[in-house]
Write a structure and sequence with these properties.
rod-shaped, 238 residues, 0% strand, single chain, mainly alpha
Length: 238
């Protein structure tokens, strides 16, 4: 059961109980008063019965009106309560999508304004943390490029004299070349991620086959010769 429904039920049940108690008390007191003063007022039992019937109808009508007013107040109260929560939910959804500049508008309600300030402060701290992490990734990737270029140049020099090396040294050189290439790709990927987080580049989405993605991932891994078996049903999904 949602919050809006619970508020409506609370107002509706409260109005129903209030109107029921007032109806019962008013009818009971009026009936007792008429019966006690029957001789003094000089009215017959038929007149008393008709008066009580009219009073009963009026009280039921008043109870129905009270219930409707209670439901109307419940609707207004639920809208007032739920509207800020819906705004907070929309803001949280926008933040989850990456729009960290999203903030809640301040309100005149001191209770809701406390929630708004806490939410905005949390988002500001989150945005600052994400930006610091992005700057850290960018700084690290830039700092790694210089020693990586030196290492790649050294490996290239060694590769140019590969024939002078022993077989064991050639195998070690091949592993070194592969690791340097993989490390270089990781640094480039880290740079691309930091540029994307900083908004310097845009992400271009493209359709691809899942099977092809798996094959390319295995080829780019440290075990490119791993045997793969792709079911025919999985070869075409994109």
């Amino acid at each position: 059961m949602g919050l809006r429904t619970r508020i409506l039920l609370t107002f509706g049940i409260g109005a129903l109980i209030l109107s029921g108690v007032l109806t019962f008390l008013t009818y009971t007191l009026t009936r007792s008063n008429l019966i006690e003063r029957e001789g003094e007022l000089g009215i017959s039992n038929q007149v008393i019965a008709e008066t009580l019937d009219s009073l009963r109808i009026a009280l039921f009508a008043a109870a129905a009106i009270t219930l409707l007013v209670g439901l109307l107040l419940g609707i207004l109260a639920s809208e007032r309560v739920v509207r800020p929560l819906a705004g907070a939910a929309d803001a949280a959804r926008a933040i989850a999508e990456g729009r960290l500049d999203t903030r809640l508008e301040p309100t005149d309600d001191p209770d809701l304004n406390a929630l708004t300030e806490s939410f905005n402060d949390m988002v500001a701290r989150l945005q600052d943390r994400v930006e610091r992490d992005a700057r850290f990734a960018s700084d690290v990737s830039h700092e790694l490029r210089s020693p990586l270029m030196t290492l790649a140049a050294s490996v290239e020099v060694m590769s140019s004299r590969r024939d002078e090396l022993t077989e064991r040294s050639q195998a070690a050189l091949d592993l070194l070349v592969a690791d340097v290439a993989r490390f270089s790709g990781m640094v480039e990927d880290l740079l691309e991620i930091s540029r994307y987080d900083a908004g310097a580049i845009r992400l271009n989405r493209d359709m691809l086959r899942v099977a092809e993605l798996v094959q390319q991932s295995v080829l780019a891994s440290s075990m490119p010769r791993t045997a793969l078996h792709i079911d025919e049903r999985c070869s075409q999904p994109r």
